[in-house]
Design goal:
By secondary structure, this protein is an alpha+beta fold. The protein has helices spanning 3-7, 24-59, 158-164, 167-176, 186-190, 200-209; strands at residues 76-86, 89-102, 121-125, 132-137, 147-149, 180-183, 213-219, 223-226.
C-alpha cells in the first residue's frame, strides 16, 4: 500500500515487499540487513569459542591440539552487491538469495585466498537425523549468479511437524541411533524431525547435476543443539 502510490510499484503477492535501493526505505532496510548479518557472524564466533572451551575442558587438550579449526562461515537468505556478467556486460547487481547461499567458483576474487583455487566452500544442511554436506562452488555457477541451495528444504510446515511428532519421543529415537540431542523445548525439537525435510542426498545430487556446486564431504550427525 505504501510502495504503489509512492514509487509506482505494484505488489502482486501480499507476502512480498520491496523498495528502490536508493530510496530512504531501501537504504534503511539494506543497512539493517547488513547489521543483522554482522551480528550473526559475531554470534557464530561466540558459539564456536564456547564449543572449543567445552571440548578443551572435557578432553584436557587445547582447541589447537584437537584441530578444531573453522573451515568456513557463510551466510544465507541475504541480498549482496556483486559484479556479474550479464549478456556479455559486466554489471553491478544486488543479488537476492532466498533459500540460497553464495557459491563462487574457482579463481573468483571474493573467495578467501586459501580457497580461491578450488572455489568457495558451501555448507548445505540436511536434518539433525540425516547430516549435512560441504561443497565448493563451480565456474558454471555463473548461470545462477553463483548461487546454490543453503539446505535440503522442508517437506512440511513447522506447525504440521509439531502435530505429527512429539519432541521427547523423537529425542529417545535419535539417542537410540547414537545421535545426542538437546533442545530448549519439545515443540521446537519436533519441528526438526528428519522426515520434515527433503532427502539431503537427492538435493546434493541435483545441485551436482546442475553443476552449480560440487560435493566434497558428507557429515554424519552425532550431536544436535536446538535453540
Amino acid at each position: 500500500k505504501v510502495m504503489e502510490p509512492k514509487y509506482g510499484i505494484k505488489i502482486l503477492d501480499r507476502e512480498l515487499a520491496c523498495a528502490p535501493l536508493d530510496s530512504p526505505e531501501g537504504r534503511d532496510y539494506f543497512a539493517a540487513m547488513k547489521c543483522g548479518l554482522n551480528m550473526s557472524f559475531a554470534n557464530r564466533q561466540v558459539i564456536l569459542h564456547r564449543i572449543r572451551e567445552v571440548f578443551s575442558q572435557v578432553f584436557g587438550r587445547s582447541a589447537e591440539e584437537l584441530e578444531m579449526r573453522m573451515v568456513y562461515d557463510v551466510s544465507h537468505n541475504t541480498a549482496k552487491l556483486e559484479r556479474h556478467v550479464v549478456d556479455g556486460k559486466d554489471k553491478k547487481l544486488l543479488v537476492h538469495r532466498k533459500g540460497a547461499t553464495r557459491a563462487f567458483g574457482p579463481g573468483h576474487e571474493e573467495v578467501a585466498a586459501r580457497y580461491r583455487e578450488i572455489g568457495q566452500p558451501v555448507i548445505i544442511g540436511g536434518s539433525m537425523e540425516t547430516g549435512s554436506y560441504l561443497l565448493v562452488g563451480t565456474a558454471s555457477g555463473a548461470e545462477t549468479f553463483f548461487s546454490t541451495a543453503h539446505g535440503s528444504g522442508r517437506t512440511m510446515s513447522r506447525t504440521k511437524a509439531r502435530k505429527q511428532w512429539h519432541g521427547k519421543q523423537l529425542q529417545r529415537d535419535l539417542e537410540a541411533r547414537g545421535i545426542y540431542v538437546r533442545s530448549t523445548s519439545w515443540a521446537g525439537l519436533a519441528e526438526e524431525a528428519g522426515p520434515a525435510y527433503k532427502d539431503i542426498d537427492e538435493v546434493i545430487a541435483a545441485t551436482e547435476q546442475a553443476e552449480i556446486s560440487k560435493p566434497v564431504a558428507r557429515f554424519t550427525p552425532i550431536g544436535n543443539v536446538k535453540g
